Amino acid sequence: MILNNLDPAVAQFPAELVTYGGNGQVFSNWMQFRMVMMYLSQMNEQQTLVMYSGHPLGLFPSHTNAPRMVITNGMMIPNYSTKPLYDKYFALGVTLYGQMTAGSYCYIGPQGIVHGTTITLRNAGRKYLNCEDLAGKVFVSSGLGGMSGAQAKAAVVCGCIGVIAEVGFDSFFKRHQQGKPPEKKAISIGYLGNIVDLWERLAEEKDLLVELGSDQTSLHNPLNGGYYPVGITFEEANQLMAQDKPAFQELVKKSLLRHITAVQTLARRGMHFWDYGNAFLVECYRAGASWLLAEKAMDDKTFIYPSYMQDIMGDIFSLGFGPFRWVCTSGNHEDLKQTDKIASQVIQELIKKTPPSALATRQQYTDNQMWIEQAEGHKLVVGSQARILYADQLGRVALAKAFNQAVRQGVLKGAVVISRDHHDVSGTDSPFRETSNIQDGSAFTADMAVQNVIGDAVRGATWVSLHNGGGVGWGDVVNGGFGMLLDGSEEVNGRADMMLHWDVANGVSRRCWSGNDNALHTIKRTMELVPGLQVSLPNKVLDDDLLEGLFEKN
């Protein structure tokens, strides 16, 4: 898993140990890598390797059911979790920015978010355009990096016309080599240039040429290469960044204002735009676009444009569906194809067992069935033989048990590692993304993500990780993940059952308590199916005007 994160075909800057996102690192330096490899070659099942922001503290005695590795990245005393202090302490080598799956050794290439992006686009069509078929619809965005590169492939999967801008030639060329965007097909078009130029040119047209729009520049790191200003070349920007950072930062702010102004022009004509959780609206607001705040906004995260979590993915997370994934450790592509077949069979059984009242859940299963049946044909694999599949609590447990049985029976030639993105139902507390649709005042708290890692560790995960930053940036999010090895043993069956139930139910319960109806219905059904689960349920407020009056600004 570590070696895959650093593979030149996978990693953004492998020599610098950066997997994706511009600064999402596995380790701070190559000596740490060598030390970790040494410890892993020596450790036994009665030891746990402890990782402090890339630094291997050492092997410590534990027990067989304890995690083999416990990882923390970027954990700071809250008062010191600022971007300027990150630069200082990163330079000292005492912390690092692990993004999400970079520092937790679970990255599987752009495929890791292709499915989520596909779900977002498909449901954006349903919500904004009232259509199931996106054929002929145009989606414009930016970024062909390690994560944003999924947009071009997702446009292909959804059947729409995707126009994706990328300012860096290396990222553009890498995605082209991997088949994204497809050559000679007018369905996913890569534009090598600045996204601001593209938006402003579209805004000049009299006709509305774009139905859907978003952005995936690396705005978690806007002033250090995550966002390139318009008006100067990529090379000139890099030189200015190194020689005169204040001047570079000023250009970034001006560029952001031009960027959002062009988007606003098109939105007024009928284009539907959403923030993709990369802090685009936040950074535009910080750059001076104060008009972005929604009318009657009672915080600094409610803008005139929704985040995709608020409008689309938040409700899907509340149903318990999130980016579950698995890796065939044999490295054999036939094993991956076999797991696709197993997953398809599992989903078919889940559809049969879903009650008619759970229409939203049934729709997700149906969408996922289509995804897994088409996944092989879309050639999504980059690096490890891995697959992403949005699954709920019941689905994850059923998939894990089915894979474990296939390993035990020799259907698969090697063990399977199951994991997920940190961007999940329970894995991340982020008021500008994963928890932006939580409206009970708790969006700025991090209990869920921290509790989730602790709960996974005590329920049998093979390794766990907890990070500061990831997605929207340092100091703005806490997130965590896990990895679990399915070796075919009966013991692993029980651990997977217990841990995966918790790993999803934790977040659904929190979302239920905040007032989400999808989460309420989901957790009620889960309590009926899972012995011993007893969750605190909210009492609904009948008079919304009374509640809103309590929080009106004076």
TrEMBL record:
UniProt name for this protein: Urocanate hydratase
SUPFAM superfamilies, per this entry? Urocanase
Q: Where is the Urocanase Rossmann-like domain?
A: 109-179, 183-312
Q: Has the keyword NAD been applied to this entry?
A: yes
Q: What is its cofactor?
A: NAD(+)
**Any GO BP:** L-histidine catabolic process
Q: Which GO terms describe its molecular function?
A: urocanate hydratase activity
Q: Does the keyword Transport apply?
A: no
